[in-house]
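ok here's Nuclease-related protein, NERD family:
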Amino acid sequence: MIDEKQNIDHVVVSRRGIWALETKNIDGVITCEGDQWNRTRIGSKGEEYEGYIGSPSKQAKSNAIKIKNYLERQLPDTFKSLKLYVEPIVIIANEEAELNIKNPSTDIYTHKEIKKQIKNKNNNKKEIFNKKEIKNIIKELKKLK
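and the structure:
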């Protein structure tokens, strides 16, 4: 098992890589600088206030490392000659969010951008997994439900 306290929102597996997606449905003005995140919202009386949202980028990176370590333990033959890297990505799913991003430690996309961005990332990498390996990776990941 990876970690019962922490859920992993989505994992994308292709012949060219593995991505750990951390999805947040948060609104307001979302500011990210490095791993520091803040959210500012407008209250019912027009006053601004900040809300704690933690660090989605740290969570995405943590999940990516956990997935990597889990797969290396479960499928040692697949990864013995391959330096596996699971790429963390944060997705902001709420259309009401206004993003202010500076020097993020992970890629950050809206839900409208993610499909195109993963496709672009996928096209820019060489193939590292065959169909059988992908099937085995997905089989192992499904055990984590």
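+1. The chain has four helices and eight strands.
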